[in-house]
Design goal:
The protein is an alpha+beta fold. Helices cover about 40% and strands about 15% of the residues. The longest helix is centred in the last third of the chain and has 25 residues, at about 335-360.
Length: about 450
């Protein structure tokens, strides 16, 4: 999930999309990429997965400082395919234009991934090379290795805050077994299978199915059972149905979209007013599920499968792609209550639009009007339980105050935005670019204001 524009001026629709702290819904992932776009997105063959490459994994397998791509041809030439378990199995994409060539897709499997698990990856050779360091368990930060839900923790020491159990009308889900505080990491999970999204567009169905079945069969038996026990909704071949039903939209390399099966996190059911969100790290291939509010013992742990802030009809339409009708407390409320909620959400979009238009100078805005809009926004956010959207609003409020020269107020909202940014996006540098840009704009305005003040007092 890309969060790099969260505090920049974006449309209300995009604001809602960027607040999808949940699985990216299916249609957003199956965008058709032509062969030229696939090639254009590939990282350089010497692109590395991190800035410093000296992990024990690279040393153990005598890999180059920056691992190079491995495919069937290079593996045959060198006689090695370390650190992967087997020689990669590759297929050529089906190209509609004979004059256009696209990258091949290969199956890679790594053993001893996050303890006693394995990982199967269907992607291009160049992208597989970028994740070599991420495979190394010792490369994982201690806060992730030592989490009580981590597969790296000894079984006797694991004490997850949740249990997997049947939820009426929903199948299996997660329920809190300990009190969970807001901002706590509820669980962390790692993928069993990762698959490039273009696989579903440029590889024939039979070849694709064979590739995915191979990916599954190369996992340990226990992992295979965990994957096969996940929900299905679309019909068709089991592994592809499971992948599409339980997808997490993640990225490899330079933000290249992939589908991921995270067996534990995939158990989290939907609610239009969720109590958790998730964030994904390209560098560690880890999903962290974070509490958005306090969760009591016995409460179901839920996330939103659709963007936050949508109206009832829009939510219903989007959830239809997942094959179910939502019966959460918001959707099951009376027609009148749903209409009031829809009105609140429309007002929130209008407030964002007004603040954004003022921030970029397309309309006149005053300190007084900003204050009134902020008060109304905060009231509506509390009413609708959409506190996650404050991240977007704080950014545009800061820019609106910059526009009218109220830099002290602007700095307050920049600080608030940065605090939420780190909580929601994490502290990886890749995700901080948007925040750094906002702070840079404020610093420049403060410098100009100070320079103007000093010149005014010059004799």
């Amino acid at each position: 999930m890309v969060l790099s524009h969260m505090c920049t001026p974006i449309s209300p629709t995009m604001a809602s999309f960027h607040l999808l702290f949940s699985r990216i819904y299916l249609l957003a992932l199956f965008i058709v990429f032509n062969a030229q776009s696939i090639s254009a997105q590939l990282p350089n063959f010497r692109t590395c997965s991190a800035d410093i490459h000296h992990s024990p994994l690279s040393k153990n397998y005598e890999l180059s400082i920056c691992p190079l791509p491995i495919d069937e041809e290079s593996a045959a030439e060198t006689g090695t395919w370390a650190p992967w378990k087997r020689r990669p199995y590759c297929v050529e994409p089906f190209m509609r234009d004979d004059d256009i060539t696209g990258p091949e897709f290969c199956l890679y499997t790594f053993e001893s991934f996050r303890g006693d698990q394995s990982l199967s990856v269907v992607t291009t050779p160049a992208l597989a090379a970028t994740i070599v360091d991420a495979l190394d368990d010792t490369f994982l930060p201690s806060k992730l290795r030592d989490h009580l839900s981590s597969s790296l923790m000894a079984e006797a020491h694991r004490d997850p805050a949740f249990t997997v159990e049947e939820v009426p009308g929903k199948g299996k889900g997660l329920t809190a077994r300990h009190p969970i505080r807001k901002w706590d990491v509820v669980l962390m999970d790692h993928p069993a299978i990762l698959a490039h999204t273009d696989l579903f567009d440029v590889v024939g169905s039979e070849v694709r199915q064979d590739l995915l079945e191979r990916a599954l069969k190369l996992l340990p038996e226990k992992q295979q059972e965990e994957v096969l026990s996940l929900a299905r909704s679309t019909g068709g071949e089991p592994i592809e149905d499971i992948l599409k039903t339980n997808i997490f939209g993640v990225e490899l390399g330079v933000e290249i979209p992939h589908l991921g099966i995270f067996p534990l996190a995939s158990r989290i059911n939907h609610d239009c007013r969720p109590n958790v969100f998730w964030r994904y790290s390209i560098r560690t291939l880890t999903v962290q599920v974070i509490a958005m509010r306090d969760i009591k013992v016995g409460d179901e742990i839920t996330q939103s499968y659709v963007p936050l802030g949508l109206s009832y009809s829009d939510r219903e339409e989007d959830l239809n792609h997942w094959g179910f009708r939502c019966t959460c407390s918001l959707c099951a409320s009376s027609k009148r209550q749903r209409a009031v909620s829809d009105q609140h959400r429309e007002q929130l979009q209008d407030i964002y639009f007004t603040l954004n238009e003022g921030a970029i100078g397309r309309s006149n805005i005053t300190v007084t009007s900003i204050g009134s809009l902020v008060d109304e926004m905060e009231s509506l956010v509390r009413e609708e339980g959409l506190e996650a959207q404050l991240l977007v609003y704080y950014g545009v409020i800061a820019r609106a105050y910059m526009r009218v020269g109220e830099l002290a107020a602007a700095r307050r909202y920049v600080d608030l935005c940065e605090d939420l940014w780190v909580r929601y996006a994490g502290d990886e540098d890749d995700y901080l670019a948007g925040m750094q840009q906002l702070r840079h704009e404020l610093d420049e305005r403060e410098k100009k204001a100070q320079s103007s003040k000093e010149s005014h007092y010059e004799p």
